[in-house]
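User: My advisor, Dr. K., asked me to get a structural model of this assembly before our group meeting. I'm new to this, so sorry if the format is off. These are the inputs:
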Amino acid sequence: MRYTTQFMLSAMAAAQFPAPTVPEIAFLGRSNVGKSSLLNALVGEKAAKVSSTPGRTRAINFFLLTDESGRPKMRFADLPGYGYAKISKSISAEWPKFIEPYLAERETLALCVCLVDVNVPPQPRDRQLLDWLRHVGRPFAVVATKVDRLSGNQRTRNLAALKKGFEFDDILTVSAKTGAGIKELWSIIEAHGVTRE
Ligand code: GDP
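Assistant: The format is fine. Below is the predicted structure of the whole assembly, which you can bring to the meeting.
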């Protein structure tokens, strides 16, 4: 399906979240993992630009996706990147307080798309996030970014390391640069995010 994407709002507190209506897909990952580029590849440049605007990088940025007849179908929630502060011990220590409740309690949150860089060995912060999502029972997908940077052999090796490090076998590789894996990612998103009528 073709969607039109519009920026809705930046939320800095739970009271600012949009009313829970259509299913939401959240995008998470360490800073620099390629989240803006991936959003750009999924829905267009405007969305990615909005999210990286200074001041909005600590907020949850919501985007509304409508179908051809203008009906709201889903929302994308772009979460702040983590991993800035070298010394903070946990993800929650550096994340604004409203993020964890959003992930744990938001009734319309259908899927968390967790981004990891396929060029980087498995990171404890990412593992921590995935363990926490497992713990709270939130469905998630793991997507390895920037796959265009690796040759076939390296890709296989790095992917195996990520699977082992995260104890999770179903990792999709994507490239915002070449478009590899974008269609597959859309299929995953639609499988979770589209309201069945
Ligand atoms: P964010 O901080 O997670 O939003 O990451 P960005 O989307 O800003 O990307 C961080 C850096 O990685 C930038 O220099 C991008 O050009 C680069 N990058 C992002 N996606 C890709 C990709 O698919 N392939 C390659 N080769 N570089 C990428």
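One thing worth pointing out at the meeting: The beta strands are 4-11, 24-29, 60-66, 72-78, 109-117, 140-145, 171-173.

User: Perfect, thanks a lot.
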